[in-house]
Write a structure and sequence with these properties.
The chain is built from 10 helices and 8 strands. By secondary structure, it is an alpha+beta fold.
Length: 189
């Protein structure tokens, strides 16, 4: 839990009182590789912090193929945030790509604490600004304008993540077939 609080404090410094309240809603959960943490169609009730392991955030296309949108490594926050905010079933699945240790906390209880603790509200604003505006905007532009090769090179630049992914994860994330991925890799050698 200390790693989670450390990461939260990077966005905005939290008081001891706020951190004590947060610790009351944190739960440690373990999931095995390939285990679903959230299934599309279910209501998203929790936020997650990846203490150890790797998560994949994906949806199925009309033919049942997995399309990865994001991957979450250690010290990342993960949730079906739009489903939580809109109080609708999630469009996405969250799966353990490795054995994972998560800290899970109730979105409802967290929101109650956000109302109660001003510093936590400021954390939430800073987090959303950085991750849902600053980070997300370039991703959306890249998907529209960059080629699969350019997106591959960008993913490749994050070696800690890249080396943990299977080829089918990478192909799915890039929106290409495994054969097309092989061609991209050959071109770059």
């Amino acid at each position: 839990m200390e790693k989670l609080l450390f990461e939260m404090n990077k966005y905005f410094p939290l008081s001891e009182r706020t951190m004590a309240a947060l610790k009351q809603i944190f739960q440690t959960k373990s999931f095995k590789k390939n285990e679903l943490i959230l299934r599309a169609g279910d209501y998203a009730r929790y936020y997650y912090f990846v203490s150890n392991g790797l998560l994949g955030y994906y949806k199925l296309d009309t033919e049942g193929n997995i399309i990865y949108k994001l991957f979450f490594e250690e010290n990342s926050f993960c949730a079906s945030t739009s489903a939580i905010i809109e109080e609708k079933p999630s469009n996405f699945n969250i799966v353990a790509l490795e054995d994972v240790l998560l800290i899970q906390y109730s979105a409802k209880l967290f929101r109650e604490l956000v109302v109660q603790y001003h510093d936590l509200a400021l954390f939430q604003i800073a987090y959303l600004e950085k991750n849902w505006v600053v980070k997300k905007e370039p991703l959306e532009i890249n998907l529209k304008w960059e080629s699969a090769k350019e997106r591959y090179l960008e993913l490749y630049s994050n070696q800690s993540l890249f080396n943990r992914l299977k080829q089918h994860h990478i192909a799915s994330y890039l929106g290409v077939t495994p054969t097309q991925l092989s061609r991209i890799r050959k071109e770059l050698k």
